[in-house]
Amino acid sequence: MSTDVVVTGIGVTAPTGLSVKEYWDATLAGTGGIGPLAGYDTSGYTARLAGQITGFDAGEYLPGRLLPQTDRVTRLALVAAERALDDARADIAELGTYACGVVTSNATGGFEFSHREMRRLWSQGPEHVSVYQCFAWFYAVNTGQISIRHKMRGPGGVIVAEQAGGLDAIGQARRTIAHGRSRLMLTGGVESSFDPWGWVSHLASGTVSTRTDPTAAYLPFDRRADGYVPGEGGALLVLEDAEAAGRRTDRRPYGRITGYAATFDPAPGTGRPPALRRAIELALADAGLEPDGVDLVVADAAGVAELDAQEADALRAVFGPFGVPVCAPKTMVGRLMAGAGPLDVVCALLALRDDVIPPAVHVTDVVEDYRIDLVRDRPRPCPMSTALVLARGAGGFNSAVVVERIP
After folding, report:
1. Would the pTM count as exceeding 0.90?
2. Which residues pair with 7 in a beta bridge?
3. Are 372 and 312 in contact, with CB atoms under 8 Å apart?
4. Do domains 5-248 and 259-404 have the same CATH topology?
5. What pLDDT score was predicted for residue 135?
6. What is the pLDDT of residue 389?
7. First CA to last CA across the chain, in angstroms?
């Protein structure tokens, strides 16, 4: 792919911060955003910890007319979108309303809104159900609401691929720009599904940690790993053609998106290996890189022993034992479903900018057989120019994105 696509703006809504600076400061400090799930009694549930955003009052950021028609996830997405566009200093009217598009990823939709209206249906009757129920629950609602609010009438879409979907959305946005169909794309993913029904949906996977100590619940690559902790939030990024962005502003982009690939695991029982390694190799080939050209891997970091072993196998196969530093910033916020990959891309871009790798927190006993160089305890200063971000989704999705610093 020949078109040079750069990231010119970032918007973050995460358990450890509602801005890029807050998130990055907390990440380098090893500050945890995981704690007891608040809002209702969780004593009857098998798991009670989550990476939850606190102190978010949508009324402080959004016009009142939007509040009755939006779920919490859409409110978070709208705030992230506005901040990303402001960060990029993007004037949609000047760029052309049909030259700017939106593609996001969402794995659960507007759970809280939908379930509230269903309760009203069964307890009060259909006349009490909000007319906005027809779209507020939908996977594509974030794309739609962002497009409407910012008059971005160009290419649009939504990708549903569980945890991997956020990286897939970035890959789709990059491809749209490279093919000349858009000048600017807003992309990424945001998730929030912590109402009681949504929480049960998380628990149904059987891979959520049941520990009650936030410092011991989510330990990817650790001998004690017993599952993950769900999180909410994510990130949205503004992608632009590099040449066009350079003409529009003298602001330095965060970096380039130079490689992307997605694969799907073979069916169980076939005896074929997982396809994460193939996704890595294809993304590196797309970026024109050899393995020794990668300075950092931001891991998927499932926190499930079998999945951690598979990821470690893929990293060793491509980079060799201890061949590249690996970081797992999700240990501070949990796994954010479709929001996780984009937030990890933000982490990678900031790590390259500042030449520092953030630590995985609370991971103290890495499985020796994995033979990976997991950065732990404290940030590691390290000159870097290229990072690989990985994400996997339930059902066999694998995605990889390569980001590079602009010299």
Report:
1. yes
2. 239, 255
3. yes
4. yes
5. 79
6. 98
7. 20
Encode the chain in three state secondary structure.
CCCCEEEEEEEEEECCECCHHHHHHHHHHCCCCEEECCCCCCCCCCCCEEECCCCCCHHHCCCHHHHHHCCHHHHHHHHHHHHHHHHHCCCHHHHCHHHEEEEEECCCCCHHHHHHHHHHHHHHCHHHCCCCHHHHCCCCHHHHHHHHHHCCCCCEEEECCHHHHHHHHHHHHHHHHHCCCCCEEEEEEEECCCCHHHHHHHHCCCCECCCCCCCCCCCCCECCCCCECEECEEEEEEEEEHHHHHHHCCCCCCEEEEEEEEEECCCCCCCCCCCHHHHHHHHHHHHCCCHHHCCEEECCCCCCHHHHHHHHHHHHHHHCCCCCEEECCHHHHCECHHHHHHHHHHHHHHHHHHCEECCECCCCCECHHHCCEECECCCEECCCCEEEEEEEECCCEEEEEEEECCC
Residue 387: which of 311, 267, 301, 287 has the closest Cα?
Answer: 287
Name the β-bridge partners of 158.
104
**Between 3.40.1190.20, 3.30.70.940, 3.40.309.10, 3.40.47.10, what CATH number should domain 259-404 receive?**
3.40.47.10
**CA separation for the pair 364, 356 (Å, rounded):** 20
What pLDDT does residue 138 have? 82
CATH class of 5-248: alpha beta
Q: Where are the domains of the chain?
A: 5-248, 259-404
Spell 41-76 as b/e; 16+ CB within 10 A means b: ebeebebbbbbbbeebebeebbeeebeebbbbbbbb
Residues of the chain with pLDDT under 50: 1-2
